[in-house]
Specification:
Blueprint: H1 11-31, E1 35-43, H2 46-63, E2 69-80, E3 83-92
Antiparallel strand pairs: 1-3, 2-3
């Protein structure tokens, strides 16, 4: 006597359905939200490093079709040896 297990394979349709719902939810949530971009750079002065970091974030956002950006929080500035580095978070839409 040959006994086997017979089961229907429903994993693929359930996985595709769950993925579709997730994509729709993320798309709807991001429609009204600004994207967050981080720019980093270095310069001879803190002001120059911050300006270059802002430019870095704006260039990244423009590559995604977002051209209106505002700085979020305070820029981070630190010394790395003799180099001044800066990091800026920007919300772009």
């Amino acid at each position: 006597m040959n006994v086997g297990v017979h089961a229907r394979r429903i994993g693929f349709p359930l996985t595709m359905g769950a993925a579709s719902v997730t994509v729709l939810a993320l798309t709807a949530a991001s429609a009204n939200a600004a994207a967050l971009y981080n720019g980093c750079s270095f310069g001879s002065t803190p002001e120059r490093a911050i300006q270059k970091a802002i430019y870095d974030a704006e260039v990244s956002a423009s590559g995604d079709g977002l051209f209106n950006c505002e700085v979020v929080g305070e820029p981070q500035v630190w010394m790395d040896g003799s180099t001044i580095r800066a990091s800026v978070d920007m919300a772009c839409s």
